[in-house]
Structure formats: C-alpha cells, structure tokens
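Quick start: what a row looks like.
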Amino acid sequence: MKSFGLATLAATTLALSEIESGFLGYITKFGKSYKSIEEYEQRLRNFAVKDALIKQHSQEEGHTYTVGHNHMSDWSDEEY
C-alpha cells in the first residue's frame, strides 16, 4: 500500500512538472510576465485548465477543427 501512495505522489509530481514546464515555455513564447508569485500561480492554474481541455479534445475523434495554446491560454473566464 505504501508503494502505491508513493507511485501516485510521483506521478502527480511528474504531471505538475510537465504542466509547469509547458507553462514556462508558453511564458517565453508569448513574452508574458507577472507582477507577483500569486499572479503566476493563478495564471499557471488557468493554463493547466486550458491544457487539459486541449489534451481531451486531441484524444477525441470526429472533430473538424484543432485547438491549441495561444496568447490567451493564461486568461481567466472573466478576462475573455
């Protein structure tokens, strides 16, 4: 049971690392900067939600369009 918990923790950490790595690439690509660590963390959460939607869309069949990240991927719903 202990090893399952450790494996789950490791997988979660890896997933977060992949998201944050993608986010750092996004920041660089679009020239983003944030005023505080709190804003960075909120923007990262916004990006992670969009990233999950993009990945889900990519796994589904039958779409006639593609989706991907753009300069608004760190925006909140209110900012749209």
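That is the whole record. The radius of gyration is 15 Å. The chain has a mean pLDDT of 87.
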